[in-house]
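Researcher: Here's a chain I'd like modeled. Treat it as a single chain, no partners, no ligands.
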Amino acid sequence: MNQDAPSDFSVPVFDAGLLEELLVMSEGDAAVLIEIVQQFKDDTVVLFESLDAAVRAGDFHRIADIAHTIKGSGATFGMVRLGALALRLETAAKGADIAEIAQLHGPVKQAYFDALHSLEAVLVQGL
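Model: Modeled as a single isolated chain. Structure tokens:
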């Protein structure tokens, strides 16, 4: 792990304000937002399966592409820590840094599940 990089674990897991922005873009229709979140969850399952395969294969280009997608998608849904860790994973893949990739692979997935828990709690409680 890059010792000079700030700890991404000090970054908040989730920012509900970004989810509120999505609700506004959905014209206040919570059902539409819930559908969008469900599609995101379905897509992310596939992304993580692809990421796992790319890590096993040592396919740095594919890891970088997937990490970039995860970074953007997560940020859209307020998953701040996921975005920060996915950016580091993307950078590590572009630099073919297998040690950094190995250290970040699990935390990226954990950041997703932590933020997903928060996101689902907000949806249950209502925005």
